[in-house]
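Entry, Tuesday afternoon. Goal for today is a structural model of the target with zinc ion bound, before we commit to ordering more compound. Inputs were pasted exactly as handed over by J.K., no edits. I checked the ligand SMILES twice against the vendor sheet because last time a stereocentre got dropped in transcription.
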Amino acid sequence: MNKSDVLKYLKDISEEVKDLSLKVWNNPETSGNEKEAANLYREILKNYGFKIKEVDEMEHALIGEYGSGSPVIAVLGEYDALPGLSQNLDTKFNPVQEGAPGHGCGHNLLGSAALGGVLAIKKYLEETKKSGTIRFYGSPEEETLIGKVKMIKTGAFEGCDLALSWHPMNANVAIESTFLSNNSIKFKFHGISAHAAASPESGRSALDAVELMNVGANYLREHIIDSARVHYTITNAGGAPNIVPKEAESWYFVRAPHRKDVDDITERLVKIAQGAAMMTETTVEYEVLGGCYEMLGNKVLFDLTHKNMVEIGSPEYTEEELQFAKTIQESLEPKLVEAEVKKFVRSGSEKTYLYEGVVEKEKSDSVQITGSSDSGDVSWIMPMNLFLTATWPLGVPAHSWQATSSSGSSIGIKGMLYAAEIFSGMMYDLLNDPKLVEEAKAEFNKKTENNKYVSPLR
Ligand SMILES: [Zn+2]
């Protein structure tokens, strides 16, 4: 069995992979509620002879393992949907159920491509009896940026040599590093309640503390790096105005391109909270609800990803699919579409609805994902790659009804199957060239030598 046999076998089982993807799309479950999706994955993996391992205290997480010996390759799959993004397969806004969840981030595709990739390589390992272990990681709760952070904490990734990942998007591109690191923190202030008119002197207002903390945080802004973001809401502001608030709470997000900056700013924010407590003679406690790392790049895996993307070749589209993409584009802000077409499409080309081809390596760092992902944390405990494929028309933003619709269309399925092929191709290369694994690990070790992963969950 050579690489093209593996890809051919993947084609043979592609109907099953597609079916899984559409089943998950038709039954969107939000973060933490991915019960049916996780069971679908367990069932298929079991049928294919994978050993299923459960993850402590995470009902909807799972690991499907096949093979033995090294290298041990992790492939990351997700399957959670987003609240409020329900949508039929349509070119106009048309929710299945108003306000219900939908796959506006394409995680129905994300998980199934990863699964398709491991199923094809399983066949290869079975036939050739080669040394190597493949693990499919069913990772829930990505949209709340916590699933993989929790999985790392339970030790679910122990023993892996490297991890492979992708995300549905508007273009075919290998990405070396991206994502913002972040922290989500709640500050709870405790004061003393009193009648606000009769005996204000005996009260100590927790709400005063929240407000003074916010003032302090707003002064902090001038003295942090430009690329950092600090945003907050007040989640408890006390009760009636005639009672000095005994309890009050604020919720902060801190984001920056590097984990170290997020940690530094968080530390300064805690000092501001303590200062506010001191000023108001209240007390404060804080809880880091979650947080994640930016993605640490790995040049060896980046090169291997790009090589496979070019080698395999991107999908072609039918007239009908191009028409679907064009109509979807017409529902978007023209500026959004123009900007993306300008970024990705070569001048003179008429193909401005769907991205075709693979973005050149030199231009790939122009593609930045400005959000955060818990996959970032995985890249800090072992070498990890990332690539995107075109599953949505150019200009379609993630977390939109247009993304939900496209993720359930044949365009989404084509991008997903292309991703599965890239995974298979990469695993084939890694199993056949142990030097690649060693080089990826050496690069990782060098980069993390003086900068080890510390879980954002303390
Ligand atoms: Zn996503």
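The radius of gyration is 24 Å.
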